[in-house]
Amino acid sequence: MNSRQQQQFYNFELTNKENDLLQSITDTKKKVITCIEDLSNEIYYNIFDYLNGCHLYESFVNLNSRFQNLLIKSFLPLKINIDSKHEIIIEHDCKNIINQNKSRIVSLHLSTTIAANQFFKLVTINSLFNCLQSLVINGISEYKLQLLLKQLISLPHFYSLNIIIVGQLESFDTIYKLIFCLPFLKYNALSYGPWRVPLKLPLAINKQLSFIEYLNIDIAIILDELITILSYTPKLRRLTCQQLYNSTLHTQIRAIIVLPYLTHINFDRCHLQFAEFEIFIKKIGSQLRVLHFTTFDNIMFLDANRWQRLILQYVPRLQKFEFEYDEKIPHIFQLGPHHQ
Fold first, then answer.
1. Cβ-count burial of 272 within 10 angstroms (0-12 exposed, 13-18 middle, 19+ buried)?
2. Which DSSP state fits 312?
3. How many domains is the chain built from?
4. Cα angle: 336, vertex 339, 340; to 5 degrees
5. 26 in a domain, yes or no?
6. What span, in angstroms and rounded, lies between the C-alpha atoms of 67 and 41?
7. Residue 29's domain spans which residues?
8. pTM of the model
9. Distance CA 266, CA 274 (A)
10. Residue-level pLDDT, tens digit, the chain, 340 residues
């Protein structure tokens, strides 16, 4: 491969943003560069976009007047990730970086429960975070989350929310009601361990609907509750549900709404009976493109002919099917008919 072919190959692998950066550096090299300060502001802004905002300030703000101006006297968007477990460091970042740059923060990631607890002692997310688009919190209590969701409603660009709840939880009802009220939310992931907490939301008939397109539910729910949640998300495109259990009633399955944009489903650790799963897929499966399904210790799901009939009749557009079956191996193992 000659050098010209190599260059074409590498450019194909780069993103548009990286190609722009490469072109900027190439143009800069036409000049005589004797030190790093000779690089243009545009190149620095492209580099800064890859860095954690807290690390960015710590490394550059006191370096010289030029870098100070680039950081403080500009509209450079900041991506904040607080991953420290030391309260002194978290306090410093909150007081000296976050509280001073609320209107420039586009993403905020609180990586630990300690970071989340300390953050909410020192910072209030309100309308001043008017550029915030994405929020990830790995550990927040039910009470603090409810307060937070009420504040997020006022943010005009907020579209992605990823939450892990910790501590005792009374109900998901208020949490999901507030999530569905976020006017621009496109992506939501909610996690809460293996503990079962009932969801008593009514079906969303003639009520406010959400614009969520990507939904990740990592809480222990039954099929009736999942259907209730889906009734609030008619724009849904991708669904992941990681702890789905048998329904106690089947009446709501007949009342399921149409989900015309739903093309991807991932059921992980699914405890449904095949009959229940069939009813669900028959209601919403006509436009599915991708189906990933994981279950265990239920040999009814190993009936290939039943799968074939279901897919051919009710999931005609399916392009990718991934099936995983796990089985506990006893101390004395014997082959059964389903192992053949």
1. buried
2. H
3. 1
4. 105
5. yes
6. 9
7. 11-42
8. 0.83
9. 16
10. 444 443 333 334 445 655 565 555 555 445 555 677 777 888 888 888 888 888 888 888 777 778 877 777 778 899 999 998 899 999 999 999 999 999 999 999 999 999 999 999 999 999 999 999 999 999 999 999 999 999 999 999 999 999 999 999 988 999 999 999 999 999 999 999 888 898 988 888 766 789 999 999 999 999 989 999 999 999 999 999 998 998 765 545 655 578 999 999 999 989 999 999 998 999 888 899 999 999 988 889 999 999 999 999 999 999 999 999 988 776 666 666 655 6
Amino acid identity for residue 256 in this structure: I
Would 115 be classed as within a structural domain?
A: no
* Contact (Cβ atoms closer than 8 angstroms) between residue 283 and residue 253: yes
Q: Supply the DSSP string of 52-84, one letter for each residue.
A: -HHHHHHHHTTT-HHHHHHHHSS---EEEEE--
In a domain, 166, yes or no: no
Per the CB < 8 A criterion, the answer to whether 190 and 163 are in contact is yes
Q: CA-to-CA distance for 160 and 271, rounded, in angstroms?
A: 29
Contacts of 24 (CB under 8 A, 6+ apart): 40, 42, 43, 46
How many CA atoms lie less than 13 Å away from 32 in the CB half-sphere? Answer: 1
What's the residue count for the chain? Answer: 340
| Backbone φ, ψ for residue 238 (5° rounding) | -135, 130
CB 254, CB 282: distance < 8 Å: no
DSSP state of 264: E
Within a domain: residue 249? no
